[in-house]
């Protein structure tokens, strides 16, 4: 009995050592804390993409018919997907375990306006930026300067640009004071830059 137990412990120790060697083999100074915040950032980008998609499809629906806004938020959706994919690629390069978590259902209502959508988008971008800044802080704490540089150079500049862009849209919407004709014209201007991404035709405006 004791011999069997001793043999079992020896085998477990060998497997444990083997796993440690395997982990060191494909990772270089990749702290678990950094790996964890990268996974949280992947989830945040995925959540933002889903929320933008929900807004885009609402504006493209016949009951709202704001094709310019729909195209704009589809652009934001694609950007968040691209950010998520880059983070997944980074996690793979560093040898981290990728955790794809469940998402919260978007909280949208039929009273969504262009003004409230831009404000929601601005809030989302600020939240994502704060999470990215936290990734940099965690990476610098464990001397992972490569990760800190990656997030700073690839993501933070884009985030500042997105925050600035959405801030301008919020300001412009506030100036329009909900005037339906003015909002209609604003959507027309958006449509010129962000055409309907889907194949179905919408009425000419």
Automatic annotation (TrEMBL):
Catalysed transformations (reactions): 4 Fe(2+) + O2 + 4 H(+) = 4 Fe(3+) + 2 H2O
UniProt key word Membrane: no
PROSITE patterns in alphabetical order: FERRITIN_LIKE
GO process annotations (BP): intracellular iron ion homeostasis; iron ion transport
Keyword Metal-binding: yes
Residues bound to Fe cation: 45, 80, 83, 125, 159
InterPro entries recorded: Ferritin (IPR001519), Ferritin-like (IPR012347), Ferritin-like_diiron (IPR009040), Ferritin-like_SF (IPR009078), Ferritin_DPS_dom (IPR008331)
Family according to the record: Belongs to the ferritin family.
Function: Stores iron in a soluble, non-toxic, readily available form. Important for iron homeostasis. Iron is taken up in the ferrous form and deposited as ferric hydroxides after oxidation.
Species whose genome carries this gene: Papilio xuthus
Any one GO cellular component localisation term in the record: cytoplasm
EC number: 1.16.3.1
Gene Ontology MF: a single term: ferrous iron binding
Pfam family, one: Ferritin
Protein's UniProt name: Ferritin
EC category: oxidoreductase
Domain Ferritin-like diiron: 28-177
Keyword annotations of the record: Iron, Iron storage, Metal-binding, Oxidoreductase
